[in-house]
Amino acid sequence: MFQHWLEPVSGRIQQCHLNRVSPSTLPLTLEQVECHPFAAQLFLPMGVSRYLVTVMPSDESGAPDPGRALTFVVPGTLGVVYHPGTWHAGIAVLDSEATFAVMMWRGGKDDDVFAPIEMNVDALPATAVPTTEEDSPV
User: What is the pTM of this model?
Assistant: First the structure.
């Protein structure tokens, strides 16, 4: 259902790396989000208990819209794919240090776009994790 997001991107090569993430505690202050305009980004948890994913759509100017942000608690048995152009915070792990395999098409100097925000995650959300493309908020 999401496989078309991972198709080759012209002018870029597929890369895979590991991200080691230290645990976060709540409340969590988000000061920056990022998006990848041309390629999806896949995160596969490796030995992860649970983690937080925060996504948000763009406003009318294309900037991130923190007022419409959604945060999900994701079990370590599920990976995440960010659709190209989706604003998202860095993954925050709960419980203990964790590793993620990250796959993405890269090769342009505009692969990563960052924007400052001010947003707090004060409590664990009760929001369910979307499991189909139709359920995806962005």
Answer: 0.83
